């Protein structure tokens, strides 16, 4: 039951959420005076401490829920509060634990950027929004944080706003996310109209209050929101473009904030989804995982490869939700957060170094293109070591966190598929293929970047490439340690011992276990990974690349399935055409009507003016003219000659007399 | 007895001569003479009609008044002519046109 007493765990969670917000306000207020990021870093560090305390108090204990009255509309009171259960505190800690290394790393990575004070401000806002999202007990509050996450990511993706591509990318991210937000909003509307409350606790405890069709619609609406936020096919297009932001931001977006929000939403609202919706989620996830892995195969931009790998892994998590095993999805989210964050930080270190080399030697190379790298293993050994760990975790190699979560996911998917019929049975096989593709593209990346010899432009100029600075290396080493198995389980090979899943699974009905799978799947995936690794080594390091680069499948992959082109032709251009049409209507019809009315008024006024000047004034002037003319005639009589006057007088009298004589007689 | 018509004809002739002098002469004094002639024509008419008022002699009395007034008027008019002459160095009415528009 919700309380109003602020206990210590609640206080800790609340301060964990609000500290980055205070950091945001302070950074915003200080502006250029706070360039070193001390405020943001200390805010997130304190947040981490508070989050750890809350985690220690709440994990595997009864959930803590606090609620205050927020506002009242009509007779409907809205409440706001914090809900701390295992899921919330896990995410709380995860967000902080990922955000802190990213903050520290950023201090070195973004050093010297003229807009760095904005960077810290946005970063704190981003963390605040995500932390608020995970502890909110209320759909409306969640939605507010959800929007804030989107807005902060918009600001960060477009951080280098003088680049046109960054502006296009953040616009795209924002617009695609709006599509998902509409879904979320529709879901909230449906829930509110049937339940009369937005409390997530009420919703997930009594989802059957909603009529079955509406439950499906609401589930699909919430999933649409998660699809955009967590970059699911076909709304994933914003994520590869979001690479325009600073690499440290990419690592945060891809690991703990932003894309994790969609998965978290689905996990939080899990009881709302019925069979149909879950099947849709699982299918979408499988398609996304496959398509993104396929696109990642041929990319040359190091960050694009990682972006597609994130999309692919998010597809795995969606499958985890779809098969009803949301703890597995969340577990994969956690392990993925660590190794994906690490991958991006390593990529950032490499790009940082390449950029440095490019500037010192005035080379005309793209610092993110893996074709320009090669042989960096000897120059950046620690970066190589950490990136290798992260890559193995991504590929699902034993002794890593990724192995535990991915195998758990695969095994449960097989178990789930055993109960399904029809095409759904294919989903686990798709995932197995995807995990092989994953191993291939990440090893392709490693081979291209770290093995072989230095690429031509670098070797020719006798460049000196050195290791990243310590402020960047320490976060990387920390994350590398977190990517390994001991953080999650004492047994490196069996996911049954993972404390994290044990903590979350209590409320979920487990699938009938197939013990054989726990042996077969790991062997299969590990074996496949090794085979693929040998293949990638053979192709890329030994330079025996067998494929033609102009084949249809290759081009389809490299151009990301021509989805951007398709969207451009099918959506963007018709909208442009429509807006041009509307512009035309506006200019010619609406403005034309107004202008026509104005012209009509003007011509009426001109006619009136003409009548006034010619007729009315003319009449007056005519009277004047007549008087003047008469005067002109009569003035001739006034000659000044006295005798003429007499003569006139006489004549007049004579006329009068004659008149009298003639008329009267 | 001389019939009334003769008086009236003589009066009319006098008036006509006076009128002509007033309208046509180039000398202001002679214009004045013309005026006198016209006044006298009127006086003649008064006297002639006076025969019908044998008790009161209204015609004769009126004639006397008119003669006195004419004399006074002549005196004033001559004074004006004198002043006009001083100003314009002319007594020709044609030359005096300051009243013109």
TrEMBL record, chain A:
Residues 136-420 form the NADH:quinone oxidoreductase/Mrp antiporter transmembrane domain. Residues 70-119 form the NADH-Ubiquinone oxidoreductase (complex I) chain 5 N-terminal domain. GO terms for molecular function: NADH dehydrogenase (ubiquinone) activity; NADH dehydrogenase activity. Pfam families: Proton_antipo_M, Proton_antipo_N. Signal peptide: none annotated. Its main location: membrane. One of its GO terms (cellular component) is membrane. It is a multi-pass membrane protein. InterPro entries: NADHpl_OxRdtase_5_subgr, ND/Mrp_TM, NU5C-like, Proton_antipo_N. It is found in: Endomembrane system; Membrane. The chain crosses the membrane at residues 6-26, 38-56, 87-107, 119-135, 141-161, 173-192, 212-231, 252-270, 276-298, 305-323, 329-351, 382-404, 426-451, 472-490, 516-540, 645-662. Keywords: Membrane, Transmembrane, Transmembrane helix. It comes from the Bacteria. GO terms for biological process: ATP synthesis coupled electron transport; electron transport coupled proton transport. This is NADH dehydrogenase subunit L. The lineage of its organism: Bacteria, Pseudomonadati, Bacteroidota, Sphingobacteriia, Sphingobacteriales.
UniProtKB/TrEMBL annotation, chain B:
It catalyses: a quinone + NADH + 5 H(+)(in) = a quinol + NAD(+) + 4 H(+)(out). The chain crosses the membrane at residues 6-23, 30-49, 61-85. InterPro entries: NADH_UbQ_OxRdtase_chain4L/K, NUOK/Mnh_C1-like. GO terms for biological process: ATP synthesis coupled electron transport. The keyword NAD applies. The keyword Manganese does not apply. GO terms for molecular function: NADH dehydrogenase (quinone) (non-electrogenic) activity; quinone binding. It is an enzyme of class 7 (translocase). Its EC number is 7.1.1.-. Keywords: Cell membrane, Membrane, NAD, Quinone, Translocase, Transmembrane, Transmembrane helix, Transport. It comes from the Bacteria. It is found in: Cell membrane; Membrane. Pfam families: Oxidored_q2. It is a multi-pass membrane protein. One of its GO terms (cellular component) is NADH dehydrogenase complex. HAMAP family: NDH1_NuoK. NDH-1 is composed of 14 different subunits. Subunits NuoA, H, J, K, L, M, N constitute the membrane sector of the complex. NCBIfam families: PRK05715.1-2 (NF004320). NDH-1 shuttles electrons from NADH, via FMN and iron-sulfur (Fe-S) centers, to quinones in the respiratory chain. The immediate electron acceptor for the enzyme in this species is believed to be a menaquinone. Couples the redox reaction to proton translocation (for every two electrons transferred, four hydrogen ions are translocated across the cytoplasmic membrane), and thus conserves the redox energy in a proton gradient. Belongs to the complex I subunit 4L family. This is NADH-quinone oxidoreductase subunit K. It comes from Parapedobacter indicus.
